[in-house]
Amino acid sequence: MKRSAISFLLLLSALASRADNFTKGNEQKPLTPELKTGDYVWKPEVSPAGPVVIIVSLPDQTLHVYRNGLRIGRSTISSGKDGHRTPTGVFTILEKNVTHSSSIYKGASMPYQERLTWGGVAMHAGQLPGYPASHGCVRLPYDFAQKLYTITTKGTTVIVTDGKDSKKTLDVTSRPGLLLSGKLAQEEPPQDSGSFTWKPEKSPEGPVSIIFSSADQQAYVFRNGVEIGRAYVSGTNQFTGSHAFSALNKVNDDGTHDWNALGSADGSDAPNLKTLAKHLAIPPDFRAKVRAVIQPGSTLILTDQPVNRSTKSAPGFKILTTENNSK
Fold it and tell me: Which of 76, 196, 227, 325 could be bridged to 231 by S-S, CB 3.0 to 4.6 A?
C-alpha cells in the first residue's frame, strides 16, 4: 500500500477514535420544531451555491447556517461557561484545521476546528452536555462539525448574538447596496468633498469587509484583514448599535449587489438602509472603488462603536466583539 494511502487511513482511524470522546450528533428532519442536545439538521441541497453565513444564538444554544440567503442547516451547541463566556460580535473564520489540538488547554483535541479569534475562540466538534460548558469555543456535534467544515472557507462570516429570536436574525434587505450605489446625482445624498485613502495593492485578494463607524465618522475597507481604504462619511449618526450584512450573488442592473441583513450582536433590528442612504455622504470616487471590490460573501458592518486595535486580529480579522475575554 502506498505511503499516502496509509497516512490517510491512519488519519481516519485517529479521527474515529477521537469521535468517541465527543457528542456524535443526531440528524433530524428539516421541520423539527425543537432540537434536543446533540440534534442537528443538514440540507445543503436547499441552496447548493453562494456565500455562507453562520449565526450562533447564545441564549438558544443553537447555530444556524445560511447559504445565499437560505437556511441549509442548524444545530445545537455548547458555548462558553460563566467566566469564559463566548464573545458576541461579527467574526470571520481565520483558519481551519481538521485535527487541531489546543495550545492553551493541555493539547485538548478540537476536530474540525474553525478559528474565530487568535485568542482561542473557535467552532469545533466537542461534548454537548446541554448547557454552556466550554472555555469560550462553540462546540458542535461531531457529525455536524464534519459537514459544516466542508462548506466554509477562510473569511466566512460568523455572527455570535445574544438575540433570542433566530427568525429575525436573517432577512433580505431591499437594495442595501444603495449605500455604495451608482444612482443618479439628484437621487443621492450630498457627497463630502474630503480626501480619502485607497491602497488595494496592500492586499490584492481575499475576503472584503466594510465598516461604517458613526463614532469615527469613517468608512473602512479591509481585504483579508488588511485595511485598503478609508474615507470620511457624514450622516452616520442616523443609526445605533452594530449591524451586519452579507452580499449575495445577485447583482442588480445598476451593478449593486443584493445583501442579507444578518441582525446584530444584541438582536436588535437592522436600520432601514434606503432611509439611511439618504443621510450618508460618501466621496463618490471612494464609493465607486469600494463597489468594484465587493464580491458575494463580502461583509458590510454599521456600528456606533469606534474601530480600533481590539477589532482587528492580524493576519486574520475579527470585528465588533463586545467582550475581550476569549481564551
Answer: 196
